[in-house]
Design a protein that fits this description.
The complex is a heterotetramer of chains A (601), B (114), C (250) and D (83). Chain B has 114 residues and is mostly helical. In chain B, 65% of the residues lie in helices and 0% in strands. Chain B is built from three helices and no strands. Chain D has one domain. The chains are: A mainly alpha (601), B mainly alpha (114), C mainly alpha (250), D mainly alpha (83).
Amino acid sequence: MNPMIPLIAAIPLLAATLLALVGKWIPDAAADIVGMVAAAVPAVLAGIVLTRTVGRILSYWFGGWRPRAGDFPVAIGWAVDRFGAGFAFLVLILLTSALVYSWRYMEADRYLYVVLMLAFGAAMAAFVLSGDIFNMFVFFELMSVAAFALTAYKVEETSPLQGSFNFAVVNTIGAFLVLFGIALLYGRTGALNLAEIGVRLTNDGRHDGLVIAAFAFITCGFLVKAACVPFHFWLADAHATAPAPVCLLFSGVMVEVGFFAIARIYWTVFDGVLGEFQHPIRDVLLGVGVVTAITGAVMCGLQRHVKRLLAYSTIAHAGCFLIGLALLDPSALGGAAVYVIAHAFAKGSLFLVGGILLMTRGGIDELLLHGLGKRLYVAAAAWFIATLALASPPFLGTYTGHALIEDSASKLGYWWVPIVLAFATIGSTAAIFRAGLRIFIGAGAGDDPILSQQPSESPPPEEDPELGIMSAVTLLLAVAGLLCGAWTGLATRAVEAAHTFTDRLGYAAAVLDHRVPPPPAPETWHTTTSSIVWAVVTLVGSLTIGFGSVYRNRWPESMTRALDTAYGPIRAIHSGHVGDYVAWLAFGTAVIGGLFAVTIR
Amino acid sequence: MSVLPYLLAVFVFLVGLYGIVSSRNLIHIAVCVSVCQSGTYILLLAIGYKTHGTAPIFGDIPSSRKVVDPVVQSLTLTDIVVAVAVSALILAFALKAYEHEGTLDPHEIVEMKG
Amino acid sequence: MTRSMRIGLFLAGAAGVGFLLVWGVLDLPTFGHYAGPYGDIVSKLTEPQRHIANAVTAIVFDYRGFDTMGEELILFSAASAVAMLFRETREADTKDIVDAVRADAVNGLGVLAAIVTLLLAFDVVAHGFVTPGGGFQGGVVFAAAFVFVYFTCEYHAYLRLATTKFAEPLESFGAGSFVGLGMIAFAFGLAFMGNFIDYGVTGRIRSGGSAALVNWSSALAVAGGFMVIFSEYLKDNMAARYGRTKKVVQ
Amino acid sequence: MIPLQSVAILFVALGALCVVLARDLVRQALLLSIYGFSLVVLFVVFQAPDVALSALVVSGIAYPVVLVGAIARVAAIRKRRPR
């Protein structure tokens, strides 16, 4: 057993508690340094572990309770595969970047901010490495509690406490749904280890109400975290309230943790017993993904609050991730994984630019910032590079992810998937491009009647901010996001890893019988013509529509009015009322669960 | 009759949800969240119960005695701590919202929509 | 959305969720007929393997001790977050507030009650492996002893005893030592949270090996965490009542 | 199922309903404690003394202090704010 595995989570957690112990008496700079080290060291460990997971699953048993081959696991075990280690690596890299960026960004009680960030990052890393369903739940809650707290960090400046409150209530209820699912599974199988539950469910073979309800509740509970329609409402509120470096983690990895959880639990637990119902499950999840992608893209175009705009863009991309996952195909899943990586870097960079705007210009409203970003050259460069990365241009940014998902979809007969991906990408990227043109170039009109007005955060702009480190991190992330797509080796490795990830029997053999599963066949990258065509379409579409919408004042008045009327209902649904959100949560769970109930017989 | 404890868990959970949806007060919502959560305790403990089983403490009973499942009890203990922590946090948000907006009505604290 | 629309939407959803839940629970083993192996296996193991009489605490602090570590960290994060949210009201703001119960009998009883409660807390923690109880329950009772002082004596006396200067480090130390104990096992060449102390005799206070240390550190973390939460709420309350909060909108 | 369990179940169900339907905060705080104690009884008859003890300290100490603190705070601010 490799002691590096638990240290990935233990180091940041220990550092968080120590920092809380001495934080009052040490200077802020020391707290920052401790935080960065405590995030960077486990990042390196996760990287090392990642290199050791080639075609293998490393298990780790806490307290030394390693069961003998074939015995019942009585304690908590982690099972680290490529995806898990890679995801933990991504989380810790982003955590380190966020903490480096915060060096100059955060003010009061900095040590508490660092403490909560470390707990947040460590919880996500632990969550993706865990192989025990209740252990996953515990770290899911730790991640949520730290996230709730972080949204409210700048409590004096961001008066909309709405964001934190709605976030906390909706996500807590999502966690209850997961817990109900866990309880049902425990009642049937009497086990908590994912592999053991999977084996027992498959041997039992019943796919009755219990299994369907458990699957529905666990899926819907995690879809709340993954911000899928109709569970997505909290996300925009939380992002608009949270500090920029926290948003980086929210959009970059926290939302994706929800998808990771669904994928992990589906392929270790339900794949056996529900395997023959792949078709209905695929169709239901695809439906949710499509609705999410379209809603996110449409709502994104209506925002002028930059962080809220980026949040809706995350929802649009979340829909695309769900489509990649829903195809239930290793190649599409690998595509979703590289897509997540490229998106995390690019979107993170955009949020960090938002933070720079808040700090130097004292505002986050696109229209109010019109032309005010002209002299922020590095930030502007980062913004446009990241926009390009999200537009999925050929062989850059999110392209490889898109291509893998699209190819696998057309192989499975879902010819319309590329259209949805293109719509979501164009809709969201056009809005980001539009905001960039307005803020950094000063293009177009300073008014747009369609965009919804939000109370803007208005911290006093700092007189002489030192932007060096902040700009460097921002630019670095943007470039990383763009280059991800150029590295096709990453995509092929992700597909190989996805083969291991989706191999239920291999996982069970590795965890319960300590056998090494056969390594997946090596993959090669095939560029298809259609993927390049679609990449050009999304790129050109994003840029044209983004450019066009800057000049909305030159559009015919009747068209603007018609658009405004058409957007009325969807705007009204996003009401900001926590009761509405919970009502939608119940309704969405009923619809998704009901569809599973009707189709899985 | 023998499914009554399970149905109780479902009932408590749904009642709590109803309270959240229909509420006009943030503190009331925080309390309803904790009611919702108690539904999960009940379900867990009901699953692990054994007729005529005793508590899983072997101090003065022979280890061959039939005992109820200790695992669900430990899960519930964890769940309870989580519930208190989350409730304290949600209440703190509610208080802060009150301080800023001067109201506890979820309808009136809405500043962002659309 | 109007309130009635919201409730209508919810009732439609709740009907579906309720149907799913009932459909699911009806397929569970009948109440009273727990079937799964996990609990039975662990019940048989705790005494021979770990010399712990109380199977629940054995699971909480040993077999699934790692979950409990996560749980203490949740409490730790929540307490830090509450402290962060109420940071506008500092202890200085409530320094010269006099909020006292002026009755000797009540004061005396309060102190007595506080002492008894403290002893009870230690008892609950110490006997966690033998009787129901353990770090969590004892920790809350420990924090409650301090609240007694507030209710029966004076706010200031409470503040002096349960000052955040004491409670916050206690909490962080507890949560930290939990993680630390996990790592100490590495020094003995064991796995994270492995047991490195002999198990003692079943039924005695000192049984359970290093799970006993874990029990105590969780008691510290819980006591500290709840003291922080209680203090912050009371402090904030005092400041609001006696007009020292700076920020009141409108 | 023994009769005691049925009674406890009935109490918990009624308690949950009362807590949720009470719109007055003080009344709700009181009802929450009573509901908490009904849960304690239920856990005892489910043979879960550890959980019952936790529920006892939580509903007897933690929730009341936090909740009453919150309600008192709201009342204090409301009193000071001219309306």
